[in-house]
Structures are given as structure tokens and as C-alpha cells.
Design goal:
Helices cover 25% and strands 24% of the residues. It is of the alpha+beta class. The chain has a single domain (67-258), classed as archaeoglobus fulgidus dsm 4304 fold (2-Layer Sandwich). It has a nine-stranded mixed sheet, with helices on both faces. Helix 3 (121-133) packs parallel to helix 4. It is globular.
């Protein structure tokens, strides 16, 4: 049974409905720059203990707040790798919300310089994602990552970390729970219940498709939980996984298959 302060928010158009309303399927005209920017926030740690210490410092900079402006473009980011190999494939797909269109995608093959350690995957994945990000010609308004925001043991998953670096609203849409418990949300699309860890609401179990398993949304940086839920639903269509991260997942798997 859904928790009483979860519930349902207004459900936007699906991808298919919006696409049918888009005249002639034309892509929007957006201003583009030379490359998407990010800042060198820190040096990359070499050990697990260094990474944990850095997470504890960085979490003090995470800001959760309502969105400061209207979001028109959302970048979906994902990565594919074998935990026993340094080779990684990173992809970013930029999704235009008003027309539900993909306007740009970038995929790269790189090498991870940090070992596979649960709870520290951001240090293995983020450098390759930044490599793909830096090749974008558009500057997305927000970023959706296949992973966690503050729904993390130290409250700084990859969505929080990545958001701090690119200085954009960022949130996680994960297919499984890392920390926390939740009551099963109602069966209809748009219904959700809070994900609670150690007495703190760190995210939501959100139904993106009627009578399908929920996904787990958590704010990362420069966005609050309600904003993350709303953007997730705006990006959702026929599938359980929202379009930006679903398409980024397909992109990196295709890169990996062809390598």
C-alpha cells in the first residue's frame, strides 16, 4: 500500500502522443556552442579510502532545491563495462522535451582508472561520461543518470557527483534499490511512494508504466524530489525506463557490441 504522502502527480503526454503532435516530425532549432562545459572539481582518487573521503567532502556541496527554470532538454547518460576489464563505453543522449525528440547523441570508448567498488562506481564511470559530455554541441538543461542521486550510503551517488561537476540539475533513475525501503506504490502510471533510508526520504519508487515494476528516482543536485519525479514522467513513454537513459543504454550497448 502506498504511503500516505506519496501519491500521484499530473501525468504528462507520453512520447508517442507528443510525437504525433509534432508537426512533420521536424527537430527543434536550438543554439549550439562549441562543446558542453564542465569544471575540474577535484583530482581523481586512486584508492577506495581516498574516494570515500572525497565523497564526504563533496556531499556538503550538494544542493537540493526546486528547479530554477523551465527544463527543455534532458541528457540521458549511461555506461557499459565489464567489472573485470578497464574498457568502458559511455554515452549521452540529449532529449528535447517539447517535441520528445532526440537532438544529439555522443558515445565514446575509454578506459577506467578506478577499480570496481560498490558505492564508489561514480569514480569508475564519471570520467568516461565527462569525455562524452565534453563532445556535445548542445548544453542540456538537466541530466538523468542510470544510477543514484542521494539514495546512496553517503548521500552522493553518481547523479549528485556528476551534477556538481557539470553544474546542471541532475537526478538518478535506477532500476534497483541501493539503500532504503518503500511501500509498493499504486498500480497506475504516475503513482509513487517515498524511498526512506535511516529515517530520511532519499527518493521515490515511481510507477512509470501501469502495472509494471517501479523505477527508483532520487534527486542528485540542483533539483528536488518532486522535480525529479516530474521530469522522469515527462520523459517516459512505452517502457518502464525513461527515454533518455533507455536510449543511452541502447547506445552504449551497441558501441560495446561493435568494439
Amino acid at each position: 500500500m502506498a504511503a500516505s504522502w506519496g501519491g500521484q502527480i499530473e501525468v504528462p503526454l507520453t512520447v508517442q502522443e507528443a510525437s504525433r503532435r509534432c508537426r512533420n516530425g521536424n527537430l527543434p532549432r536550438l543554439e549550439t556552442g562549441p562543446m558542453a562545459r564542465y569544471r575540474e572539481l577535484h583530482e581523481w582518487p586512486q584508492t577506495g579510502s581516498e574516494a570515500i573521503a572525497l565523497q564526504k567532502r563533496l556531499r556538503e556541496r550538494v544542493s537540493l532545491a526546486p528547479l530554477a527554470r523551465e527544463i527543455e532538454t534532458v541528457a540521458g547518460a549511461d555506461i557499459s563495462f565489464d567489472k573485470f576489464s578497464p574498457k568502458v563505453f559511455a554515452g549521452v543522449v540529449v532529449f528535447h522535451l517539447p517535441t520528445m525528440s532526440v537532438i544529439e547523441e555522443v558515445g565514446v570508448q575509454s578506459e577506467a582508472r578506478f577499480p570496481y567498488i560498490p558505492g564508489l562506481l561514480s569514480f569508475r564511470e564519471t570520467p568516461a561520461l565527462l569525455e562524452a559530455w565534453s563532445r556535445l554541441r548542445t548544453e542540456p538543461d538537466a541530466v538523468m543518470l542510470d544510477g543514484q542521486g542521494i539514495a546512496h550510503p553517503r548521500r552522493i551517488g553518481i547523479a549528485s557527483h556528476f551534477g556538481l561537476i557539470v553544474e546542471r540539475p541532475a537526478f538518478g533513475c535506477a532500476k534497483s534499490v541501493l539503500v532504503g525501503r518503500y511501500d509498493e506504490p499504486g498500480p497506475e502510471r504516475g503513482q509513487w511512494s517515498p524511498l526512506v533510508d535511516r529515517g530520511e526520504v532519499v527518493g521515490a519508487a515511481l510507477r512509470t508504466k501501469t502495472r509494471t515494476n517501479p523505477i527508483y528516482v532520487s534527486p542528485g543536485h540542483l533539483i528536488d524530489l518532486q522535480g525529479a519525479i516530474s521530469l522522469t514522467l515527462r520523459c517516459s513513454g512505452r517502457y518502464r525506463v525513461p527515454e533518455p537513459t533507455r536510449l543511452a543504454h541502447l547506445l552504449v550497448n551497441e558501441l560495446r557490441r561493435k568494439a
